[in-house]
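From the methods appendix. Each design record in this collection lists the tokenized structure first, followed by the designed amino acid sequence. Records were kept in a plain field format so they could be parsed without special tools. The example shown here is representative of the layout used throughout.

RECORD:
FOLD TOKENS (274 positions):
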């Protein structure tokens, strides 16, 4: 029995004797099955290959980014937030090995793991077991969990306070239960928002965007983006980090609001004439 990992999305399935026929995460319009066909690996195979290593880099006081080199699957970045007496792993990466565990324990370990959406569930149960941590997923995305665990806590409502300075917000959009993490004491007390790719920073780092599917270029309706912007208008944050290590360094709250307006204007045919 193995916990097989989809090589396209990097999400781990529950134990099975043989490789699953399909990947639940990839086999729908927000993701994709590789043109080369469905393929699987295991964490044990990845470690034994000695191909991958994790890099842990400090972003600012109390915040570290975690990424795997070379890129595996989607290639996202996870973040370790050192809150007030509470360490949060925001989103997850697939590869985890003893070296990574040792380095993170030196930084105080992990008290909880919170996920923005199913594409980054990765090997979340492996991480939770390594650090004796709970996993927080919004109940609206419960159906996408491919490896069940007693460590998973399905939270409900529009927000959840994990610690004195860390709050999860259900934003929706990309997935119904899609969430962002507000770190109130980040950016020298001016606030940080961690968004996965529920909201992505674009090439021009003063702007962000919103999508239903990024790989398949399916936009969100204007009404959904307006609702998301309205929710985020009530949160104070100066800096924003997305899942691919793109950062809005200053005045990120305003960047989200003007980006939402531009997005809606474009969909409504009011931004340009071409």
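DESIGN:
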């Amino acid at each position: 029995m193995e916990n097989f990992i989809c090589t396209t999305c990097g999400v781990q399935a529950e134990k099975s004797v043989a490789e699953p026929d399909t990947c639940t995460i990839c086999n729908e319009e927000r993701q994709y099955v590789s043109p080369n066909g469905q393929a699987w690996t295991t964490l044990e195979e990845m470690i034994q290959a000695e191909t991958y290593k994790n890099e842990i880099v400090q972003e600012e006081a109390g915040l570290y980014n975690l990424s795997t080199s070379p890129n595996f699957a989607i290639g996202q970045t996870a973040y370790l937030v050192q809150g007030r007496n509470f360490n949060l792993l925001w989103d997850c990466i697939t590869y985890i090995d003893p070296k990574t565990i040792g380095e993170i324990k030196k930084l105080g370990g992990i008290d909880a793991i919170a996920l923005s959406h199913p594409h980054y569930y990765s090997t979340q149960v492996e991480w939770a077991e390594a650090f004796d941590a709970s996993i927080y997923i919004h109940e609206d995305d419960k159906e996408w969990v491919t490896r069940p665990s007693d460590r998973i806590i399905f939270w409900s409502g529009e927000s959840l306070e994990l610690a004195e300075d860390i709050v999860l917000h259900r934003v929706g959009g990309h997935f119904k239960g899609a969430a962002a993490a507000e770190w109130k004491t980040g950016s020298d007390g001016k606030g940080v928002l961690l968004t996965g790719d529920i909201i992505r920073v674009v090439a021009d780092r003063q702007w962000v965007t919103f999508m239903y599917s990024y790989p398949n270029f399916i936009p969100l309706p204007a009404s959904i983006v307006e609702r998301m912007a309205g929710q985020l208008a009530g949160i104070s944050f100066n800096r924003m980090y997305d899942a691919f290590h793109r950062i809005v360094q200053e005045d990120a709250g305003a960047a989200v609001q003007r980006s939402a307006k531009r997005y809606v204007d474009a969909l409504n045919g009011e931004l340009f004439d071409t």
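APPENDIX NOTE: The chain has one domain: 5-267.
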